[in-house]
Every structure is written in structure tokens, then in C-alpha cells.
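#lab-general

N.A. 3:47 PM
ok so I finally got the sequence cleaned up, no stray characters, all 313 residues accounted for. can someone with queue access submit it? mine expired

B.Y. 3:52 PM
send it over

N.A. 3:53 PM
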Amino acid sequence: MLGFIGLGNMGLPMASRLLAAGHKVLAFDLRQDACQALAAQGAEIATSPRAIADRAITVFMSLPTPQIVRQVIEGKHHEGKHHDGKHQGEGLLGAAAMKVLVDLSTTGASITKDLARVTQQAGVCYVDSPVSGGVNGAVKGTLAIMCACPRKDYEALEGLLAVFGKPFHVGEEAGQGQSMKLANNMLSATAMAASAEAIAFGVKQGLNPMVMAEVINVSTGANTAIRDKFPKAIIPRLFNFGFASGLMNKDVQLCLEEAQACGVPMAIGSAVGAIWHETVERLGAESDFTEVAKIIEAKAGVVIEIKPSSSKE
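B.Y. 4:20 PM
back already:
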């Protein structure tokens, strides 16, 4: 039996893929609707994270913030809020069964190194394994899994990780997976913000944003924001790509903090960080991250959409 803690936008489809691959899954989330959705697919639902670690040898975690990851591992997890199980508030360390903890969350290298140390001291193998590819990638099993742990541990887990997408062994030490993920997400956040500025500029000059996307996608400015987010979520005004602005802002700020700590200047990254901070301040942490375009639109005095007079024939 495999354990899975955290059934959010990413965790739920990943846990579903484990079930579809024939694995038994024991899962937990504070949201009852997510638990019920996974139970309908055949999962067993536990009363707490600790209850999972007492029964499952290998446990996956997909959690939204470094603080929650630490609480789940070390204890005092949302004490008294949900469930009446005897393990409520206890951490994963010292549990009866767990020998491998695979952290799929994005927490930053510093906290990951610390959590790996305390986890390993408790006799548990800690696998730093953040993922990228969005909700669609989690559903389809096309995520990039950035795994940092001793090679032998990676090889033992590679088949399981492949259920989620394409695993990469990026390093031997906990924290290196986080550094890989933060570098990727800084680029993704930059592409979103810079693309919004470029498309807003074109729209103000009278260009059709969908035509702009088509041209850029076969030109040197091509990126995933122009390829996917603008045609599917921004230009149609849906803003439903499935990743929260607060989480993107968290990843960008983590990257800036880690870069400062290791002496890497990020002038461009700092400007990008300011845009994402403003997005969260003005639109809220739960807003879709494609809504960063609204911040750019407001400043430019344009709306990135296809007007009837400029729609394609």
C-alpha cells in the first residue's frame, strides 16, 4: 500500500494515477470533497497523515507551502481542526511503517535540507522530488519529476515516479531537486509576465492577440505562456489554467531568497517577483496565475482579447 498526503489540484490527479496503475492507495486531505473523489476511485481514506505513515512503507506528499510540509513531518498538523483520530497533530517521524518519504512539494532548498536531515535521523529515506507540468500534466501523466536523492534510492522509486510522468535524477543531495524546480518556475513566471507585456503592447498597436501568438510560436520569442496559457486561458478571458497566483508568487520569492543566500544576483527575477507580489496583493492568492495579465492590462489600458472587428475570418 502507498500513502498519499495532499489531494489538491496536483495531488489528487497524481494519486488517481497511482490507483489507475493498480496500486492500493491510503490517502489524506483536510478537504472532504477531495477525499471523497479519490475514495470513489478505490482509495482508502485515513484519519490523519500519521495514520498513513503507520501503515504505508512509501508515502508521497503534495502540499502547498513549506510551513505545511514541516508541520506534517514534524507534527502539530492543523491540530483540532478536522477529524477525531488519535493521531491528529502527530508528525510522520517515528511512525510504525514509513521507510520512504517522497516530497513532491515545492519548498525551497534550505527547508528541504533541514527536513531531509531530521527525517533521515529518524531512519526514513527522504526523497526531494518536486514536479512541473501543471494540472494537465498531472492528469495525463506527463509531469517532469525532479528527483534528488542517492542513486540507489532513485532507481528503486523510478518505476513509481514514472506513473506521474518523466523522472529525472538531478542530484544526489536533498535540495537539488528544489533548486531545479525553482529555476524552472522562475523562468515560467518570467515568461508569463513578459509575454503579457509584449502582447499588451501589440494589442495597443492594433494587433490581434491570437495572430500574435501564432506568429510568436514559430518565431524566436516562443515560450509555453504564448503556446498554452494565452490561447487557452487569457485571450478567451477564462483565466482557468489551474495554478494559483499565490503559489507562483511563493515559488518566485523562494527562488529570490535562495539566490540571494548563495550569491547569485537576480535583477530580472526581482522585477518579476514584484509583478507577482502585486498580482497577489490586488487579485488575491487564490486567483489563477494567468490573471497576472490583468495587472499588465490595467497599466497599459488595454484588454487582451479578440475584438469582433479584428477576429480572424
